Amino acid sequence: MDWLREFGPDLAAFGISALMVAGYYLFLWRQVRRDPTYTIHGVNEVARSRWVHSVMTTPGRDVMAVQTMRNFIMGASLMASTATLLIVGTLTLSGQAENIGRSWHLLNLGGSHSAELWIVKVLCLLVVFIVAFFAFALSVRLVNHVVFMINVPDQDAHAALTPENVGHRLNRAGRFFAIGMRAFFFAVPLVFWLFGANFLVIATIGLVIVLYRLDRSEYSE
Questions:
Q1: CB of 161 within 8 A of CB of 149?
Q2: What does R_g of the chain's alpha carbons equal in angstroms?
Q3: Average pLDDT by consecutive 10-residue portion of the chain (221 residues)?
Q4: What are phi and psi of 112, to 5 degrees?
Q5: How many other CB atoms sit within 10 Å of the CB of residue 164?
Q6: pLDDT of residue 10
Q7: Nearby residues of 21 by Cβ (< 8 Å), 6 or more positions away
Q8: Are 215 and 39 in contact (CB under 8 A)?
Q9: What is the b/e burial string over 39-77, where b = at least 16 CB atoms within 10 angstroms of the residue's CB?
Q10: CB contact at 8 A, 134 and 177
């Protein structure tokens, strides 16, 4: 049971952090079922759907629509590029386990200092950044589709190109963008985990508090 004695604190810290995040999202899911606009994400989805309907049913808004979505694409592309840089940086960090692992664990209270666990931590961080990259890339892909769909006149539209369906596709792009941003947020506790198991728990508590304040809509019932 030597492995449990060495890696137990880190496993316990990871389990506690995972339970806190899962509990927060369970709470959020229950609230959203009761009130779809409880979160700012729900309000944004309503806004995007109504915006698409307004653009597709009101003549003369084509240029404005394309410019708005161009700004969306630029933002998502910037975040995807940032995720790529973070992936490269994390891969570089993975090769420094023997050199900096122990020095980063100077404040680690009870956690393991092993190079093997360091690699696991870096791998978790790498997975988060890869998820962020794919989420932002998929967001760009979907908005590129919507750029063409939104300029189809409603009266000539195919059944799949109605304002409701186009709005649904734009909302999917918005959800992927939100997933990418959420992955960046989740990277914060994992970065603190590199310094020790105790920092992982503290950072997760802080993250849940911040997410609660960011997610909740001021207009929820």
A1: yes
A2: 22
A3: 64 91 94 89 91 84 84 94 92 69 58 70 92 96 90 70 88 95 94 85 94 81 52
A4: -80, 150
A5: 11
A6: 78
A7: 186, 204, 207, 208
A8: yes
A9: bbbbbbbeebbebbbebbeeeebeeebeebbeebbeebe
A10: no
End-to-end CA distance of the chain: 52
Q: What is the pLDDT of residue 203?
A: 94
User: 46: which 2 tokens?
Assistant: 């309503």
Predicted confidence at residue 188, as pLDDT, reads 94
Q: Assess contact for 50 and 179: CB atoms under 8 A.
A: no
From 107, 112, 174, select the one nearest 140 (Cα to Cα).
Answer: 174
Beta bridge partners of 39: 216
Taking CA atoms, 33 is separated from 30, 39, 171, 214, in Å, by 5, 11, 18, 18
Residue 193's CB is within 10 A of a number of other CB atoms, namely 28
- Confidence (pLDDT) at 21: 94
Encoded tokens for 37: 């606009």
CA dihedral of residues 105, 133, 131, 111 (deg, nearest 10): 0
The conformation of residue 110, written as its DSSP 8-state character, comes to: S
Q: Which amino acid is at 20?
A: M
CB 176 within 8 A of CB 75: no
Q: What does the chain come to in residues? A: 221
pLDDT of 55 reads 87
